[in-house]
Specification:
The structure is a single chain. By secondary structure, the chain is mostly helical. The protein has 2 helices and no strands. The protein is rod-shaped and about 80 Å long.
Length: 53
């Protein structure tokens, strides 16, 4: 029983999976913010171009 408990405590695969999950979430948030900012800029650019035509 103690051997199994020690194995579970020293096993870091679960922690690595959580870290990768957090990293993927952070990247997704950054991408969403960037796309939102670029989308607004591109929309304004097209609106200005259409207005000047």
């Amino acid at each position: 029983m103690l051997k199994t408990l020690r194995t579970l405590i020293s096993d870091e695969r679960g922690a690595q999976l959580v870290e990768y999950g957090l990293l993927a979430t952070l990247v997704a948030i950054v991408v969403m913010v960037a796309v939102g900012a670029l989308g607004t800029g591109v929309s304004t650019l097209y609106a200005n171009a259409a207005g000047s035509i």
